[in-house]
Amino acid sequence: MRQIKEGMEVVGFDGVQIGVVDGIDGDRIKLKKSEDGHHRHKGHHRYISMNFVDSVDECEVRLCSDADIVQLFEEEKSGRPVKS
C-alpha cells in the first residue's frame, strides 16, 4: 500500500486503464475525478478496494481482475457501489 502514489495509472489485468490514483483512503484507492465525459462517473471520485491490487511498479498499479469486473465493484465515498 505504501508503494501506491498519487499520479500512478491504475490498470486492469487486461491492461485497460481504469483511472489515476488521487490518494489512499483507508483500505481503498481513491481515483482522480474524471472530467472527460467518456466515463459514467464524470465529475466525482471513484474508489477501488485494495483487495483488487495484484502488483505495483514505478508508475502503475495493476489489478488482479479485468477492468470491466473492477468497475462493477467501484465505490463512491459512502462505500456504496456506484450505479451505472
UniProtKB/TrEMBL annotation:
InterPro entries: DUF2171. It holds the Pfam family DUF2171. It comes from the Bacteria. This is DUF2171 domain-containing protein. It comes from Bradyrhizobium pachyrhizi.
